[in-house]
Amino acid sequence: MQPTRSRAPAALALAGLLGVAGVTHFARPRPYDSIVPRSLPGGPRAWTYASGAAELALAAAVVAPRTRGLGGLLAAWFFVAVFPANVKMARDFRHKSAKARAIAYGRLPLQVPLVLWALRVRRDA
Question: 0.90 cut: is pTM over it?
């Protein structure tokens, strides 16, 4: 079943978000390196690049109608998987400026609508 025109924009917007985020992991990796949980094996840069590559792959999967359902499901799992990095960022930023704390703390609840968005893309695929 082909998605209707009203459903495709949500998928394309999600693909765009994932694509832009993926590119920034390669173009400006340092901020991402700083939020990689230290408990993960290997260096932070490897995790930054791996998550950027994953976001680019997810964007490609979500943009293609044939793989959109799987891409949406995998994107939802990805958003859950990166939550520990957002928690680390919030902990690390607790003594920074009010603006920096607001950004860091704001990322935590943002994961919920991102997961729901990805699941909606899967459902509508």
Answer: no
